[in-house]
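worker-03 picked up job from queue 'complexes'. Input manifest follows; two sequence lines, order preserved.
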Amino acid sequence: MPARRGPPARRPRPRRGSSRGGRAEAAWRDFAASFVRAGMVPPAEAGLVAVETAEGAAVLILAPRQTLTFTGKCRLRCLYGSVRLLGFAVASHQPGLAVYSPSTHCALTLEALPAARPTAVDLRQLRAAARAALRAHSVRRQARVKAMAQFSPECAVVLLEHLDTPVTRFLLSYPLLSRVFEPQKKEESNFTPEDAVLASVGIVKCSPDHGLLMSESMALALEELIQACCAEDEGVPVVLVCGPKSTGKSTFNRYLINLLLNRLPSVDYMECDIGQTEFTPPGCVSLSNITEPILGPPFTHQQTPCKMVYYGQTSCEQDTERYLDVVKYVFSSYKKEVPLVINTMGWVKGEGLLLLIDIIRLLSPSHIVQMDVYDWKAMAPLTPEHVHLTPGLYTKGEQQAKRKRMGLSGAENWKSSEGDGDASAPEYKLLYVYPEFPRAGAAGEARVHSSILRDMAILGYLGQLQSPDIGTVLPLHSLVPYQVPFNAVALRVIHTDVAPTNIMYAVNASWVGLCRIPDEIRCQTDGPVLLTQTPVCDCLGFGIVRGVDMEKKLYHILTPVPPENLRQVNCLLLGNIAIPNCVLVGQQGTEGEIPYVTSYYNYGILGSGKLRKKKHFKKREYAFECDYD
Amino acid sequence: MAGRGELAWACSRRCLSPARKGLKPLRTVVAWRGRAEWDQVMVGLYCGDSRLQQEALDRVSAWKSRYGPKMPLAVDCTAELIRCKVLDSSGKLKSYELILSYGLALVRFVNLITERKQKMVSIPLRQLAREVDIPVWVVDLRHELTHGKLPRLALCRKGCDVVLDWLRKTYWSRQLGNNLCEESEDEEEEQEGVEANAELGNDSWEIQTPQHEACQKHKEFHEKVRDVLMSYKNEQFRVLQTVQSVSKSREMWFDSSSEVDWILAQIKDLMQENRELLAEALLSDGFLIPKMDCLKMLNIKYEANRDVWQFKIPQTFYCFWQPLLTGLLSQNFTQILLEKMFMELKECSDSSELRPQFLIGWISEMLTGIAKVNAGKKKQHCNKQAPVKELFLHKVPLQWIRLTDNCLEAPSWATAHLLQLVLTIMRPRLPRSSRKNLLYLTSVYTEGGGPLPSPGLSSDCSKQPIYTIESLQWRARQENQVKNQGQTEEKEEDELERDGGVAEVEEEEEMVTEVNPWEGLAHSGNMMAIAEKRAALQGSAWQISADEVQWKDFPLGKLPGQTDDPDGLMLDNYSMMSLLDQPVREDWKAPNTKSAELNTPVTGGLFWTQNDFHKIKSGLQLF
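worker-03 finished. Artifact:
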């Protein structure tokens, strides 16, 4: 989801005693926050203590509850006390965490968690422990002394280090992303020495209202979900999160998962939003097992899911039936051992809402989080009763189903195939979340266009091709590709009909899903094998068709999929997800003209652009509403 | 040769880039591999032959896949309308069905194209259509189709033709910088040069293919070329007629119209098919070699006295053909055309007709043009008043030794002049002494007189031994060998030669070999990884591609040895496969079918949170 900005998380976190503070803490915080709201206390911390310890490393000392909202990236390690980042509590035993807070997304806020007030006896021990931790991470003596001067037993000591990985190097090598970790603009004119220290690490402090805003309803919903997930007696919860675009579904999910990971070893995550995927490149429905906290946007944490199907489009309007098939297929591999968080599409109008109702029937969640803006009546409350009675796009509502059942018995009705879908309404708890950040629900005003976010995710995925031991970025075209014979893998273009004789024109230099179908590829000739329909099958990863060798009948493919998995791939699916333009345009040092790249295409000429869906054209005479989305 | 060409190109690119920064258009991604594919589809769609049109439509279907939702509207609309025409000419549909097809395509065209111009408050279609020059009756036709009676087929056909013509004029002809006189032409020409360059290595391939082509096809092609060339001529004459003044029409010719661009695009497409034949056609009577009536029409007096023209083409005639030639003279084609010209000259050098005179004139004009552009005298024609447009916008490194041979094989009264031009332009140069001797020899042979007074060469060469063609060829072979050994040696050789002669100011391009810092690393560091991968793929259809290939030299979508032939990716055989059992339905009912987990952390196996885990790991010694 695009950038979220708002006042910082100043509201209490769950009032229940899930953390040590409990009710008293919450009350105290509310009290304190009220001063801030009234403008009586400057919202910023009294003064941030940051000490440079080495080249590109700094120690940060945060007073209890002191926060730091920042843009940039770094490796974070808590040396003493504990801090919280997007819901995830980091204590001193955590290994270093890669933290990404790009300017394209809601900024991360680092917050020191309060510790119990120590007794006088502990004090010395605590100081010693902190000093030992500093020493253990080879903080120089000078810096150590400087840091310890600011030490108090309740504070948190955090070590921040410059973060530079092959993936980040790769991402930053593209103009599209080169400034992604830089702040949009310098907000404050006074540049303190602390700022300089932070800058050397790679982060820049920004105004707290660039961070996440936690609304009351969100806090309540989170609390309830945590409780449900950590309860021993009931079955594992299945949480479905829905709501229109730009209401903060992704951020909510990340926060929820991070909170759960404080208490559970892992959480399952099912991605049904094919336009903005969290852990995979776009166009996929997937099921992932999450064990690490999510401390950055999708392009920083691409990972191999347990199950993935390549749908091949960024929206499912054109083929909702296959979309449902895909969702069912992926959900079938969920083992119901750990809680599941399901993310859904922002398409909640018209057919989209009907489809959502189908999905709710199919996945039968235990909790539904419905995110919606107060004044924007996009969708009716999805109460169990409502869902029970309303027909979906493919499933029937209660009355209809009854009538139908009386009429024909063997009707292909998912509702009935799902078990005894009796008269009883589905049982789930509906949680309403009202986002309160500015621009909530205003999809058009997102800071970053959704297609750019998709490109970023793809680049993040391709970053895995960079080898870890080389300091420079290897351009994609310089890498040694894999090759596979035409007749060893089936081929299918998902989104449009291509004349078979011309199919290689579509495949060359394209983004393909590397899939596995159960069927054996049988082929008498050495020519390519074209599938007559789009299979719903496992996708093991993605690749770029680097070239098509028409003489030797080979595809050359660049992919980060490990060879053990690659050898199972027997089907290439081509959808309308394209290689980011910057990958093709930015190729340097090659011989001759770059295929598919030109400087001479003039978009100024009428008809040169794409088909645009019109939103609202007002006729002169009367207002005319188009129900496009 | 190829290596040399690239370097020249790389150099010229380097020299140009700073200046160009300001106006450099944005580089975008398109669905066609290159210009040739675009031209091929455009010509295919508009050629009128439904088989070729169908082929072009097939290619457009691949474009649609590449573009996804970003497919340009105009391409989509053109394809839809052409599809109707193809259906129509197949005779498979009755008129009613055809009306429906045409109707939808027309409605879509009018709506989609005008919608782009719509503002927040909608503007009447008629007004929008007027703004973009769509005939009002087409808008009315749309109205009839959607709200009224279905029109007659004839009207639909007419509408289709008019709209297709509109699309051609507004979109296809203007797109991809087809306007020759635009500043931006620059780089494209250059790129074309490179493209041609890459093909040079495949000359043998090019020559072999026509062998099995039927004579008939050859003839057809020749006629096609002639037709297009005729249309060019007619268009230029039409311009002349409209302004009624030769001098004015010269200006008009410079700023070539969209009509000319369209013709040019067609010729370029034909050129892709067969350069040799195009060159032949150009040199057949009536085109570059005019007939008398043509000269009369252009108000050019023919002077039998060859000295009057001074090895030049009459201005008006030059201007008449310049737009076409400038568009065609890529590096590759220049070489071919010059060779053909010399060959023609050889055939007719004795005759005193127009032919030899014009051949010599053209060769001389071309060589002078190349000399200018290769010398790096960048276009001073920024001021449009400059009377004569250049034929070449970019450096054209040619196979000079071959041209020298050709020149010598076609002796005529002008050989000494032409040879001198060749020898001055050629890089690397022949040794100074050889040049001198050759010139002397030719002048002896062709004119029987003393050598031409030539700047930079002393005429004192009477004591030199006499060279023959054979010695030149021997020399040429030696040169070639040297050249093949690489540029560095080439340079050294050059230097050595210079020692012997008068120091000349060499404006030879500096050759910069880029050193790629990762190259070495990629090899040492990745070899292990590659070996591991290779082992993991043992026995699988998937393999590691040959790593001795210098992949970094080839952009994505291009493989070593692949040409820019727009038909290069066509499939001749493929098989279809249908999937009988789709796993979905059963899987849904029985969730525990063959699960396909990859690297799945065993979800049930973990009992600790990340926190617990790290706590345990770190030994928990806080207190």
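worker-03 released lock.
The first strand of chain B starts at residue 28 and ends at 29.
Strands of chain B lie at 28-29, 543-544, 575-577.
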